[in-house]
Amino acid sequence: MSGGREGPDSHDEPGGRASHLKTLTSELEMARALDILALAGEILKEGFRCTQCGRCCRGEELSVLAFPGEVRGIMAHTGQSWLEVAEPPLLGEWDRMGNFHTLEWRLQKTPEGDCQFYHRGCKIYDHRPLLCRTYPFYLEEGRLVVSRCEGLGQEMEAHRALDLAGELKRRYVREMEEAIDLVMRYRDFERGPPSRDGACLVHDSEGQHRLSWDRLPGMLDRLCPASRDR
Ligand code: SF4
């Protein structure tokens, strides 16, 4: 399972940021105006029933975006710390001070690459992120998009399609709100080479979070092997 929008890239120049915000704001309006009944009709046509195969919760390619509020919800439920629940993604860029910048948070995975909360079913089912609640569907520019899943094409009840449509709309609105907050708070930076001297800076809808590498075991070695800058 993967999904969620990536961040602002290089939108810090005044024109770029303003036009990016305008695009996101009009998409937010579109999201808020979505007709849930019509969306439920589209979902019904696709048909879906979860077969409990667990494939969307496991494997190397799994990447589950969790918004800050969702991370806190899981923390409250499990008693885990922030970094036990979520980690920064490995995709990002370096600045001239040797800091690695990345966007948003992903649920922590096991060494095998599975979601840490998958044990013959989701152990945080009532607190799982919106991305999990709406899989294998998502909305892009107001259109329904379907990911690969063996449960597609199965007959489904109308009330399930309606519930799913409601969750999809909620996710779409939240994605737009989070993206707008992220762009508002994001400050661009001059790019530089990878270095082991800086820190990891995570940008999200609440601002920029600085994490020393000793709080992210193994991540620096994956991004910047010790021999690279020696
Ligand atoms: S949070 Fe639950 S539903 Fe989402 S990937 Fe993990 S085990 Fe699967």
Describe the overall structure:
The protein has 230 residues and is of the alpha+beta class. It has a domain at 14-91 and 105-185. It is built from 7 helices and 8 strands, in the order ααααββββαββαββα. The strands form 3 sheets. A 4-stranded mixed β-sheet has the order 2-3-7-8. Helix 1 (14-32) packs antiparallel against helix 6 (158-185). The longest helix has 28 residues, at 158-185. The chain is globular, with a radius of gyration of 19 Å. The model is unreliable at 3-7 (pLDDT under 50). It binds iron/sulfur cluster (SF4). Iron/sulfur cluster binds at residues 1, 57, 64, 107, 115, 117-118, 122, 124, 128, 132.
Assess the beta-strand content as a share of residues. 5-15%
Indicate the low-confidence ranges by residue numbers.
3-7
* Number of helices, counting only DSSP H or I runs of 4 residues or more: 7
Compounds present?
Answer: iron/sulfur cluster
Considering DSSP H and I runs of 4 or more, what fraction of the residues is helical?
A: 25-40%
Total count of strands: 8
* Mean model confidence by pLDDT: 92
The end-to-end span amounts to: 37 Å
**What is the string of helix and strand elements?**
HHHHEEEEHEEHEEH
In a few lines, what is going on in this structure?
Helices cover 36% and strands 13% of the residues.
List the helices and strands and how they pair.
Blueprint: H1 14-32, H2 36-46, H3 68-78, H4 82-85, E1 86-87, E2 92-94, E3 100-103, E4 106-107, H5 130-134, E5 137-140, E6 143-146, H6 158-185, E7 200-204, E8 207-211, H7 219-223
Parallel strand pairs: 3-7
Antiparallel strand pairs: 1-4, 2-3, 5-6, 7-8
Helix pairs in contact: 1-6, 2-6
The structure holds iron/sulfur cluster.
Iron/sulfur cluster binds at residues 1, 57, 64, 107, 115, 117-118, 122, 124, 128, 132.
